[in-house]
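WARN no homologs supplied; continuing
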Amino acid sequence: MQSIALNSIRKKELPHQPSPFWSYLEVGRLLYYSLFLFILESWFYWIRLKAAFFESSKWVIGFWLVCFLFSFVHIFLVIMDGWSRYQNYKRAKDQFYIYGVTKRICNLYIGSKCQRNAALVAAKELGLEEQVSNYYISKGIKWYHYIPYFMIKDPLFLFKKYFWKRTFLEKGYEAKFDFRKLQQQTGL
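OK structure emitted
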């Protein structure tokens, strides 16, 4: 794959750079749809749990309690996952800006639909989305590949440190460039 040098990206005009808030939402849009569903689900299970608490046996209460806790905990996991994907996005955007589209960079974000989406949003904001998308297509990735590959390869992923670290506890990343300022400078 042909690499685009930093200077060639700087010479051409950067596409419109959205605010960090909109980028955050775009990076995690699939996650935030599921967040909405988990909130609704938790509300439904809470209502069922309250009703069961006063009218049902202990096993029915236990059933609704497990359902409620499952969906309620997922609210926080989705929020943490969205934050982690935003860190991936900032890192990918800096990497694409400095080194261009390379196999090595694209492969860092190939593991899950959410990570690929973070890389694609970063590439889109630099005008490189087609190249990154074509690379993922060339690797056999389809639009419906939602389940992260590591889950298929390692069924015991929940007990692995790498899963928790990479999925929910990604270290904060400070962007090296202010792309909104760069866009204004190249637009002049």
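The CA atoms of residues 89 and 137 lie 19 Å apart.
OK
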